[in-house]
Amino acid sequence: MDRPRETPSSTPKPKAVSLNLNVRGMGQSATLAIKDKCRALRRQDRKIFDFGLGQSPFPVPAPMVEALRLAAPEKDYLPVMGLPELREAVADFHRRKDHIDAHPDRVLIGPGSKELMFLVQLCFYGEIILATPCWVSYQPQARVLGRRISLIHTNIESNWKLTSELLQQSLEIVGDDMRPRLLVLNYPSNPCGTTYTADELKEIAEVARRYHIIVLSDEIYGQLQFDAAHVSIARFYPEGTIVSSGISKWCGAGGWRLGTFSCPPDLDWLVDAMAAVASETYTSVSAPIQHAAIKAFRGGAEIEHYLSHARRILAALGQKSVDILREAGIRVVDPEGGFYLFLDFSSLAQRLATRGVTDGTILCNRLLEEAGVAILPGGAFGRSRGEMSARLAYVDFDGARALAASEHIPLDCSLPPDFLNQCCDRVVDGMRKIAEWTLRER
Length: 442
What we know:
442 residues; Aspartate Aminotransferase, domain 2; 2 domains; alpha/beta; 15 helices
């Protein structure tokens, strides 16, 4: 008997066949995935040191919380570019802090700076230049949009920083001086904790101007630079720089989801396109959040006091962490801002290989399984998958408790030796766990 012919309707269709090719095989962001894994392990009563997701440990400043409470009845849709009073506050913030000619008409408010970065790559049709190691989402966003990506690999000898020479060399190799390009520059850096001097930024700005490169300057950690002396590249390349900021890191308000772009007049065409796309996607950012965020950008004595204590705690904890890790032979650069360290295990590669640890992914998986410490492999930050590197976010401590204890110590004094052991003990203990695991024989 002849077998009945299969018709298209009777043949099971693979579920992924209709997925956009740019997102096939893409998983959840590494930072969010590790957070979920830590939560699951803690539900199993495992003691976990969570250094994966870079979420500020500090509470949202009290003036912002009160402003949000008062703004709770605000229910109307706001303009797609953002609340006018907030845009003015953001522009004034950049004028005061960064000494740049920011204007409220060219400020765009979005639901987190991550969404604004996606929008700018969507609207800008050109090459995206990234210096690795770089934040986990820059490259996946460009991939989703089908953008051409140019990676410039830095090294620990240059403190993981892009140099004007490296940028110049990468452009000369291509030999297309007028190619549309967007350079993403992030400082203080996630994942490295390093930043740029004014001279270094001037030199990068000169190359960008020569090649007509748009610079997306991600300065979300600017107010957490430990010496409170953050400098924006927009001071040296005002006509071609978009300054990205927000309230997630320096105000501890990651869950509020509010980011800002401040753009120059020469890029009005790009701002207009982003606003048009925003109007067809998220419409506008939550009204109560926008009203409350005005407090953050207007600043004042209470906000500055909060920041001074946060910087002091993070600077001391970062240096303590570096000291412990270096004793174990791990190479790491002193942090200058934010709450990240980028670890280089290459000098320990032979020792770790005897235990079957041969790349960054295996290293991080084994460290979590055997020592209960969660960090992320360098491969998630644009490095080679075979590289023995990892990023660490030293945020697993009670920020409210640390701030309260810091209040009893004058700001012109250093924190006493026992402060970190008492107020940030989980981080200190976690660093010791990494060091012990690294030096373990088997």
